[in-house]
Amino acid sequence: MKKIILAAVTVSVLAGCQLTKSPTGRTQALMYSSNDMSSLGAQSFEEMKKNEKIVTSSQVNNYVKCIASAITAQVPASYGVTNWEVVVFDSKQVNAFALPGGHIGVYTGLMQVANSADQLAAVIGHEVGHVLANHSNERLSQNKLTSLGMEVANGAMGVAGVKNKALVMQGLGLGAQYGIALPFGRTQESESDLIGLDLMAKAGFAPEHSVSLWQAMAKASGGNQPMEFLSTHPSNEHRISDLNKNMASAKSSYNQARAAGNRPNCKL
Ligand SMILES: [Zn+2]
User: Fold this and answer.
1) Is 40:168 a contact under the CB 8 Å cutoff?
2) N or C: which end of the chain has fewer CB within 10 A?
3) How far is residue 259's CA from residue 202's CA, in Å, rounded to a whole number?
4) CA distances (Å), 153 to each of 37, 149, 167, 171, in order?
């Protein structure tokens, strides 16, 4: 009898939510369909392109696209996106992001900190990890954002027409650009670290540079540079040790990838 009541309560609480598993096997309650999230991602990316200065140098674009395409080539076909849009923004912001539906933005300021192809691959892998694990959907589905989420859904997912546009952008991980950062949680950060590590290794980028990336981030944040990236992607003391715990398996994927001919040669 107890079990039946429990089951009934669970169902009513989760009505409207879809229970799924993240790529690392964690149970998630998601309120939005992947089509809804892709639509939000596309509209937000258009906003970004309208409001931010875009780098036109083909040298810089080719470099970032070389890295991003090697990473996204490793995204499972089940995600349903084959053409990822990559834009480099001309800004001192130390930042990068990826949006549902296949959009990647990299700021030139980040390239000063992540100053090798392997380190930039670690950032892009991490960002794509947030997308593959539906972290934006998860955040927009959280209690404090639920009413906002309903507003978005009712407005045919129109970002521009939504009253609290800044909050929606925050849910997508674009908070720093709108003045208020809504950080990803520790669980989401760890999950993206592991997905990113796997993607970069399979793409043929040296996985140990995920560790040197976070060390470079920590060093840079000690200076006077604004660290937008760290405000939405909080570092934690376990990050480097968790990456190192998975390094042996990542190196094995890396060696297999290199042997199979995945040797990205991305140069600035
Ligand atoms: Zn993150």
Assistant:
1) yes
2) N
3) 11
4) 10, 6, 14, 14
3-state secondary structure 153-218: HHCCCCCCCCCCHHHHHHHCCCHHHHCCCCCCCHHHHHHHHHHHHHHHHHHCCCCCHHHHHHHHHH
Output the furthest CA–CA distance in the chain (Å, rounded). 68
CA distances, 149 to each of 15, 142, 152, 164, 187 (Å): 15, 9, 5, 10, 22
Q: Which residue in 112, 95, 117, 113 sits closest to 104, CA to CA?
A: 95
- Report the amino acid identity of residue 115: N
Would you mind telling me the total number of residues written for the chain in this entry?
268
User: Cα of 150 to ligand 1 centre, how many Å?
Assistant: 25
Q: State yes or no: is 85 an active-site residue.
A: no
The Cα-based distances of 61 to 98, 239, 268 in angstroms read 16, 30, 9
- From 47, 127, 208, 237, active-site residue: 127
Per-residue pLDDT of the chain (268 residues; tens, 9 = 90+): 444 444 433 333 444 667 888 998 888 888 788 888 888 888 889 888 998 999 999 999 999 999 999 999 999 999 999 899 999 999 998 889 999 999 999 999 999 999 999 999 999 999 999 999 999 888 877 755 555 555 555 554 455 555 556 666 666 666 555 544 567 888 899 999 999 999 999 999 999 999 999 999 888 887 655 577 777 777 767 889 999 999 999 999 999 999 999 999 999 9
Closest CA to 193 of 201, 70, 179: 201
CA 161 to ligand 1 center in whole angstroms: 28
